[in-house]
Amino acid sequence: MFLSALSYFSNDLAIDLGTANTCVFARGKGIVTSEPSIVAINKLTSKIEAVGNEAQEMLGRTPGNIAAIRPMRDGVIADFDSAERMLTYFIRKAQSGRNFVRPRVVIGVPAQITQVERRAVKDSAYRAKASEVHLIEEAMAAAIGAGMPITEAAGNMVVDIGGGTTDVAVISLAGIVYSRSVRVAGNAMDDAIILHVKRNHNLLIGERTAERIKMQIGSASPLDVPQQMEVKGRHLLEGRPKTITVSDAEIREALSDTVRVIIQAVRDGLEQIPPELSADVFDRGIVITGGGALLHNMDARLRDETGLPIAVAEEPLSSVVLGAGKMLSDFALLRKICLD
User: Fold this and answer.
1) Which residues pair with 171 in a beta bridge?
2) Which domains are present in the chain?
């Protein structure tokens, strides 16, 4: 009786612990939190000044005693202490005051994550007061969140382009037949834009400006209508703020290497899957999810390069956390697909 009461009061959570953003799904409520994976810490007192949206506002604007840190890098934990604090914050926020029961947590992680990295994610969640922690591959979670029929005896191919990693997987009978993770995705695109603007215009811009450029005029293939955008930053030679204009064509050139790596990862997957499943993928096409799926003409470029039908998930930014959230109500399927 006591255990069933605890189960009733527990607030089971699914977490997409992303390099760029962390999304939290609470059973019975849906997505309750979606904020940047950033922690602002006071270096003198070791106290957390802000997490998520508030910390992002501080990015690039902090005084010397405050550091804005991204605890995740390439889809895995780079700063263990900050990741634990960030997880604790998000779990408490998702539970909205019901902290007397420790939640069961399902977390999406990249394919080919090492045992050490897997242990770090689990330890951080346990120290953030989780009672159970289950890890599932992000590509599997994304496929479930996108509504793909993963339990059928047929090949389903999903490409999840996140912030730190791009995960490519072919799934059949609720199992992963092929999976590969490349540590090139949205953040690499931002870095490429920063480098391009620095080299070609002698202008230094921050991460947030680079991301805004990517979202507004970034593309994987030529746009129907050419676009331009004004960009503000600090001129390296003159040492003062300056505004320049960049075009979609030059940003596309800046992103070309990153996009090429992602396309090659998809091609590698198509080459290595069994013939029967290859035929299924040919019929069903590929579903792309994650923030990178929103890059203008990414689906068209993949279609041209592979010759296959390409569909963008209905909610590409939320596919992983929605898929992990569905596992909270289907523990039989969770036991089949979790990495434990």
Assistant:
1) 156, 176
2) 2-140+320-337 (3.30.420.40), 146-184+257-316 (3.30.420.40), 186-254 (3.90.640.10)
Residue 41: burial class (beta carbons within 10 Å; 0-12, 13-18, 19+): buried
Angle between helices 248-272 and 186-201 (to 10 degrees): 140
Closest CA to 164 of 71, 30, 54, 287: 71
Main-chain dihedrals φ then ψ at residue 328, nearest 5 degrees: -65, -25
Tell me the whole-structure pTM to 2 decimals: 0.88
Residue 245 CB partners (closer than 8 Å, separation 6+):
228, 229, 230, 231
Angle 115-127/80-95 helices, nearest 10 degrees?
50
Question: Could you read off the pLDDT tens digit of each residue along the chain, which spans 340 residues?
Answer: 333 434 444 579 999 988 889 999 998 889 999 999 999 988 888 888 899 999 888 877 778 788 888 898 887 888 888 888 898 889 888 887 565 678 899 999 888 788 888 898 899 899 888 899 999 999 999 999 999 999 999 999 999 999 989 999 999 999 999 999 999 999 999 999 999 999 999 999 998 899 999 999 999 999 999 999 999 999 999 999 999 999 999 999 999 999 999 999 999 999 999 998 999 999 999 999 999 999 999 999 999 999 999 999 999 999 999 999 999 988 888 888 888 7
Contact present, 250 and 196 (Cβ < 8 Å): yes
Distance separating alpha carbons of residues 30 and 196, to the nearest angstrom: 39
Tokens read off for 278: 């290859």
